[in-house]
Design brief:
This protein has 276 residues and is an alpha/beta fold. Helices cover 34% and strands 18% of the residues.
Length: 276
């Protein structure tokens, strides 16, 4: 295995199935050198999936770091939603994501809960205007990045999870990618911020998609802008750590990427994938 770092995974502190220690043991068994636990940051309007006992979460990760020192590098991360109520300085790294729309009346609409919810949101909040919905989503991603300046930008095109076409969200591909390009340009214009995008395989392991986030077309745009990527499984159980990494590397190579970023002890380092 060439990629030995996975920084996006969830435990029973949030909406994952396994404990912190079970996830780490699985990562060790799979040959990983670095593992990052990245629980969902607290969202007071939705307690169904996020970390509710953050102090306990931080203590457990501190215990894990001590327990597995010399065996695997354990990092304490957080997946910050655009509406999370957290301080990302409490963590070793952050993944920034958008999981909700917020209406003018203060109601939150989940983006990735189910196809039914997706269609209801399109109808109720956007009057079935797909372009408005997609534009609003990517504006929300840009706002999230400006708010948190996350270490990693998570599942960038999550909006495609339940769309009729994974690339276009019911828009022409040209229109959809124009919106995406505008969002990427805005992110690149943020002062003193050097974005890293994750290639997220979580929707494949859970049976929602057949390709990672972001789509191959978006990864092509990222490559053309010299934006680095890192692989992550978004695993919600111990079996899915590192899921679909080899296949994702082949896709990245076909796009033109020569390396991906892997977390070492405390910093990202590029790992060549050209001749694997």
């Amino acid at each position: 295995m060439i990629i030995k770092s996975d920084l996006h995974m969830h435990t029973n502190f949030d909406d994952g199935a396994n404990s912190v220690f079970e996830m780490i043991e699985s990562a060790i068994d799979k040959g990983f050198e670095t593992v990052g636990i990245s629980g969902h940051g607290f969202t007071p309007f939705d307690l169904s999936y996020c970390i509710k006992k953050n102090a306990s979460y931080l203590r457990e990760l501190t215990r894990a770091k001590r327990k597995y020192a010399g065996k695997i590098n354990v990092l304490c991360g957080i997946e910050a939603d655009g509406y999370s109520d957290i301080n990302i300085a409490d963590y070793d790294y952050s993944i920034g994501s958008v999981h909700y729309f917020k209406s003018a009346k203060g109601k939150y609409y989940p983006i990735d809960l189910s196809a039914t919810d997706y269609n209801n949101t399109l109808r109720l909040l956007f009057n079935n205007d797909s372009e408005f919905m997609v534009t609003t989503y990517y504006k929300s991603v840009v706002s999230m990045v400006k708010k948190f300046m996350p270490t990693i930008i998570g599942h960038f095109d999550l909006i495609t999870k339940f769309s009729d076409d994974d690339n276009t969200c019911r828009l022409s591909e040209e229109k959809y990618l124009d919106i995406v390009k505008s969002a990427i340009d805005e992110i690149l214009d943020i002062p003193s911020y050097n974005p890293i995008f994750e290639v997220n395989t979580g929707a494949i392991s859970r049976g929602y998609k057949t390709a990672p986030y972001p789509s191959e077309a978006i990864l092509g745009i990222l490559h053309d802008n010299n934006i680095p990527v890192t692989l992550s499984s978004d695993a919600h159980n111990s079996e899915n750590i590192g899921y679909y990494f080899d296949e994702s590397l082949e896709m990245l190579k076909s796009i033109g990427y020569n390396n991906v970023l892997v977390m070492g002890n405390s910093t990202f380092v590029p790992v060549s994938i050209k001749d694997r």
